[in-house]
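Propose amino acids for all 236 sites.
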């Protein structure tokens, strides 16, 4: 094998490794952030003025706008065409996943809690409530991961190339395979402050407006689910 080809393969594997590690790290942090409404409260200066709270709300909306703009920009035909060029095709999914993780990291790092305005606050010191929210979120995250795996996580992460036209078509019609799971996580929380309300509203609206699946998409999802089920049975 020529040295140039070895270098290309090695570089691709390095980029893939960095992408997987960075994505895994981001997903873990995102899980904590979404399922723990008090995630950013530690050390946060409470008692802010309404002016500061309004500024925090503006910052949070700007952060979410960056995430949505990044998602929407990469979905444009012109950008997809550029990423499908011979030199970038092998890195297409890595670029998409890395930029998505980066935009999420920006949200996680610079998110501003607004604890002055609270819609509801359920006391999770009561064991029944704590276990109810915990089990519900575990179930919702499980649904999300199963939905992602059923769509072939290897292609989504760029471990293997995007070969399925049905998968490409499906992702043109939705932003995430587990809309219901994320709705549960965003809205069924014990503590809903103003910043979390904005987060839940904007992300729910974005996912809903981007959801445009049809019978062909649903049949593909059913086919993938059956295929994964058979693969798991085969491994037993």
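Proposal:
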């Amino acid at each position: 094998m020529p040295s140039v080809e070895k270098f290309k393969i090695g570089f691709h594997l390095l980029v893939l490794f960095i992408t997987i590690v960075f994505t895994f790290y981001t997903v873990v942090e995102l899980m904590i952030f979404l399922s723990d409404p008090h995630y950013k409260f530690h050390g946060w200066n409470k008692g802010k003025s309404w002016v500061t709270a309004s500024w925090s709300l503006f910052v949070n909306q700007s952060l979410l706008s960056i995430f949505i703009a990044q998602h929407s920009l990469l979905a444009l035909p012109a950008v997809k065409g550029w990423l499908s060029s011979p030199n970038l095709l092998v890195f297409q999914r890595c670029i998409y996943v890395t930029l998505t993780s980066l935009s999420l990291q920006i949200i996680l790092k610079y998110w501003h809690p607004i604890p002055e305005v609270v819609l509801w606050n359920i006391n999770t010191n009561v064991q029944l409530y704590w276990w109810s929210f915990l089990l519900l979120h575990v179930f919702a995250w499980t649904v999300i991961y199963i939905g992602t795996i059923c769509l072939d996580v290897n292609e989504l992460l760029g471990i293997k190339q995007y070969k399925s036209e049905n998968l490409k078509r499906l992702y043109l019609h939705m932003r995430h395979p587990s809309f219901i799971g994320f709705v549960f996580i965003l809205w069924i929380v014990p503590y809903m402050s103003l910043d979390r309300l904005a987060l839940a509203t904007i992300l729910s609206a974005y996912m809903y407006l981007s959801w445009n699946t049809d019978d062909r998409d649903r049949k593909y999802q059913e086919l993938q689910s059956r295929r994964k089920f058979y693969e798991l049975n085969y491994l037993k």
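The chain has a mean pLDDT of 78. Residues 3-235 form one domain.
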